[in-house]
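Section 3.1: Structural characterization of target chains.
Under the original work plan, the team committed to producing a structural model for every single-chain target entering the pipeline before any wet-lab resources were allocated. The record below documents one such target. The sequence was received from the expression subgroup and is listed exactly as submitted; it comprises 147 residues.
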Amino acid sequence: MNQQNTAGEAAKAVVRRNTEEVQGGGNYALFDALFADNFLDHTPQPNCTPDKAGALGLYKTLRAAFPDFHADIHWQRVDGDVVTTFKTYHGTHQGEVFGIAPTGRKIHFETVDAMRVQDGKITEHWGVANLFSLLQQLGAWPPAAQA
């Protein structure tokens, strides 16, 4: 393996650890080690700041809403120092999320995200999540008819 392939595999491993151990396992000490202090989220979720604290807040919100939150990673690709991942998140809705009271429903939704990894730390994020599908599964879309 050449040096570029080795760096790419190491970057994929950082992103995979974030997905599996932080998002899926709630290891927030590891979050602090994996994310750079100057992390920037180019596509923050509603009511989240585009920084490291915002990302951590989102992760904690998702784990509170879906205590069994986890992802199946379908594939990862590396282009320079950016790792793109396609995954499906799964969980059981047991806490409020997006203003929706717990339903007890099992959910899943797809996400594609790109994370820049520099010196072993995640420095930037771009992502698209199928939140429309999530809202449908939680019974929040289409909205209830107005009386």
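Residues 3-23 form the longest helix (21 residues).
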